[in-house]
Amino acid sequence: MELAIPTIDAEPGPFPFTPSTCALLVIDMQRDFVEPGGFGESLGNDVSQLRRAIAPNRRLLAAWRSHGLLVVHTREGHRPDLSDLPPAKRTRGNPALAIGDQGPMGRILVRGEPGHDIITELTPLPGEPIIDKPGKGAFYATTLQTVLQARGITQLIVTGVTTEVCVHTTVREANDRGYDCLVPADATASYFPEFHAAGLAMIKAQGGIFGWVSDTDRVLAALAASPVST
Ligand code: C5J
Q1: Neighbour-count burial of 101, counting CB atoms closer than 10 A to its CB (0-12 exposed, 13-18 middle, 19+ buried)
Q2: How far, in Å, is the centroid of ligand 1 from the Cα of 210?
Q3: Backbone phi, then psi, for 156, in 5-degree steps?
Q4: Of 29, 198, 218, 223, whose CB neighbour count within 10 A is largest?
């Protein structure tokens, strides 16, 4: 008798789930985006909008860790000499504090500064890869694909912030590289609820043109029902 492939209940249809080759990819849950005084607020955004994604990410992290599955974190930021910051990005948005300027949590979006850290609620465990990325997509100018290939990863659960910027860009990049991506809606967030909704709608539209959309409860239910061999 053939065993049915586990699936996650999702839109636009069931996501064929193979936990041992499915990484949890947590995008940019950094103080600079989530806490007051960082890059997000310098652009005029209400950063409290992003906090709703914290609890779902904690649940997903706990589950992935307890099953011994791969967790990867990303951080958006730049070298202290800003040599990887194109002028087009530095001047974009006319923020009150530009990337590289001194803010309340150190230099804005600069590696090694307090604002660049991942928020304490979601601190990576030793051994979990942290991908530092200069752009919006997690594959651009990083070693992410090498890290995933070394672990035989073919599927990604993509969470984090913001839905329509770095999460979306990363899902598009991953889809083009052959990864099946599922986004749990409640584990992502945007400063703009309407962009959050539109971003998720775009992912699952047209038969899932970039991927699948579900939620944390449904991902965890499928994981609990799956035989996991790592
Ligand atoms: C932005 C991000 N919004 N992590 N970065 O600039 O989405």
Answers
A1: middle
A2: 19
A3: -135, 135
A4: 29
Position 1 scores a pLDDT of 55
| 89 given a catalytic annotation | no
pTM above the 0.70 mark?
Answer: yes
Q: What is the DSSP letter of 163?
A: I
- With CA atoms as reference, report the closest residue to 76 among 169, 149, 196, 199: 169
Catalytic residue among 22, 32, 117, 166: 166
Q: Is 28 a catalytic residue?
A: yes
pLDDT band at 5 (very low <50, low <70, confident <90, very high): confident
Q: Name every residue whose Cβ is closer than 8 Å to that of residue 183 and which is 6 or more positions away in sequence.
A: 157, 158, 159, 163, 167, 171, 200, 203, 211, 212, 213, 214
Check residue 2 and give its pLDDT.
58
Question: What pLDDT was estimated at residue 138?
Answer: 99
**Closest CA relative to residue 74, chosen from 132, 31, 158, 120:** 132
Residue type (1 letter), 63: A
Supply 59's token pair.
Answer: 């649940």
- Reported as a single tens digit per residue, the pLDDT across 105-161 is 999 999 999 999 999 999 999 999 999 999 999 999 999 999 999 999 999 999 999
Of ligand 1's atoms, which has the minimum distance to the CA of residue 43? 6
What is the C-alpha separation between 99 and 130, in angstroms, rounded? 21
Instruction: Please say if 133 is a catalytic residue.
Output: yes
